[in-house]
Design a protein that fits this description.
Blueprint: H1 25-38, E1 47-53, E2 59-65, E3 68-69, E4 74-79, H2 83-90, E5 93-100, E6 105-115, H3 118-127, H4 130-138, H5 148-161, E7 173-187, E8 195-202, E9 205-210
Antiparallel strand pairs: 1-2, 1-5, 3-4, 4-7, 5-6, 6-7, 7-8, 8-9
């Protein structure tokens, strides 16, 4: 057994206090996200973990990329027939998580998910590189396949088929909007007395609270 007891880090880069935060959590997220995006030590500030509940009751977590955020919520894209897509259709609640270690920050978002409109999914799909569009058509995401050659052969076929044609968005591929009802901002602090500020939606208003670390 490897002993990890001495692997420690002192958190002291910033603080999160009530007098300096935004009253709307999306605005607070925007400020933090911009800092993360501009940080030379963070390659993908929009990388987020999303946790859904499987049929056996166990959460499954995977990394996806945030593609947009508005005052309504957070948008990402996926295959609707994937494990995450099927889980979301059965249980519309999910947890999103951003971790920016070089800033000593986390954001944890509990949200209700719904599909975005088809025209919005179309617009984003056709803005992607052609290889990514074909990849969405090629992969039966989360299904068992015989080998990698299965994907490469199918990709070669579609590259030839759509060499001079627009690629249609697959009907089973599109975006989800995660509408938050709770957002927690975590800022590392010395002596493990971290700052935790949580925004909870109460009908139309956000209630701000501090949690013990």
């Amino acid at each position: 057994m490897e002993n990890l007891h001495d692997k420690r880090k002192v958190y002291e880069k910033s603080q999160l206090i009530e007098s300096e935060i935004k009253q709307n959590p999306i605005e607070q997220f925007r400020d933090w996200f911009l800092e993360a995006s501009e940080s030379p030590n963070i390659s993908e500030a929009n990388a987020m973990a999303i946790s859904t509940i499987e049929d056996d009751g166990c959460p499954r977590t995977r990394m996806v990329l945030l593609k947009a955020y508005t005052y309504e919520g957070f948008i990402f894209y996926t295959n609707y027939d994937s494990k995450k897509g099927k889980a979301i259709e059965k249980n519309h609640k999910a947890c999103l998580h951003f971790f920016w270690p070089s800033l000593e920050r986390q954001v944890i978002i509990k949200a209700n998910l719904s599909r975005i409109s088809e025209n919005l999914s179309d617009g984003y799909f056709h803005s992607r590189p052609k290889g990514s569009q074909l990849g969405a058509m090629v992969s039966p995401q989360s299904q068992v396949i015989p080998n990698r050659g299965f994907l490469e052969e199918k990709l070669a076929e579609l590259e030839k088929q759509y060499q001079n044609e627009e690629i249609p968005r697959p009907e089973n591929w599109g975006g989800y909007l995660a509408k938050p009802y709770e957002i927690e901002f975590w800022q590392g602090r010395p002596n493990r007395l971290h700052d935790r500020i949580v925004y909870t939606l109460d009908e139309l208003d956000w209630v701000v609270s501090r949690l013990a670390p």
